[in-house]
């Protein structure tokens, strides 16, 4: 059972990760679009007024703007943010969560936990 009409953006410079997450989300009825950089995502977000994802999934380490910088630019937008990263740094984790991230998941993550986390974000709550 998916979230009717939910739309999630995945921002990760690893194309295989982005594709896998997009497939997983689509398998539960959630539409997803991927971006290889925070810069590309923010460009679309700022240039298309009707573009408003229900949740953004950000990698921490990317070329150009990193995930924390993208999160800062989203501040005040009301868009829930979930971080995914292969490099679990406690300082970065604390910074992301203090700035309002719904969750901070280390790659590789369990699909069931990821789905529960996304659903919680879409429903306006904190991750399980």
Structure, described:
With 128 residues, this protein is of the alpha/beta class. It has a single domain, classed as Response regulator (Rossmann fold). 41% of the residues lie in helices and 19% in strands. The protein contains 5 helices and 5 strands; from the N terminus they run E-H-E-H-E-H-E-H-E-H. A 5-stranded parallel β-sheet has the order 2-1-3-4-5, sandwiched between helices. The longest helix has 13 residues, at 15-27. The protein is globular and about 35 Å long. The model has no long low-confidence stretch (mean pLDDT 92).
Short synopsis of the structure:
The protein has 5 helices and 5 strands; from the N terminus they run βαβαβαβαβα. With 128 residues, the chain is of the alpha/beta class.
Structural category is alpha/beta
Which strands sit side by side, in order, in the main sheet? 2-1-3-4-5
The number of helical elements comes to 5
| Helix proportion | 40-55%
Beta percentage is 15-25%
Q: How many individual β-strands?
A: 5
Please supply descriptive tags for the structure shown above:
128 residues; alpha/beta; 5-stranded parallel beta sheet
Lay out the secondary structure.
Elements: E1 7-11, H1 15-27, E2 31-35, H2 38-47, E3 55-59, H3 67-74, E4 81-85, H4 90-98, E5 103-106, H5 111-122
Parallel strand pairs: 1-2, 1-3, 3-4, 4-5
């Amino acid at each position: 059972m998916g979230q009717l009409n939910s739309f999630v953006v995945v921002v990760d410079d690893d194309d295989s990760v982005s594709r896998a997450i997009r497939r997983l989300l689509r398998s539960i009825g959630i539409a997803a679009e991927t971006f290889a950089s925070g810069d590309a995502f923010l460009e679309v977000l700022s240039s298309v007024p009707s573009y408003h994802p229900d949740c953004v999934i950000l990698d921490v380490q990317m070329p150009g703007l990193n995930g924390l910088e993208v999160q800062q630019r989203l501040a005040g937008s009301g868009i829930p943010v979930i971080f995914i990263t292969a490099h679990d740094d406690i300082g970065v984790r604390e910074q992301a969560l203090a700035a309002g991230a719904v969750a901070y998941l280390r790659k590789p993550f369990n699909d069931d936990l990821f789905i529960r986390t996304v659903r919680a974000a879409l429903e306006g709550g904190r991750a399980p």
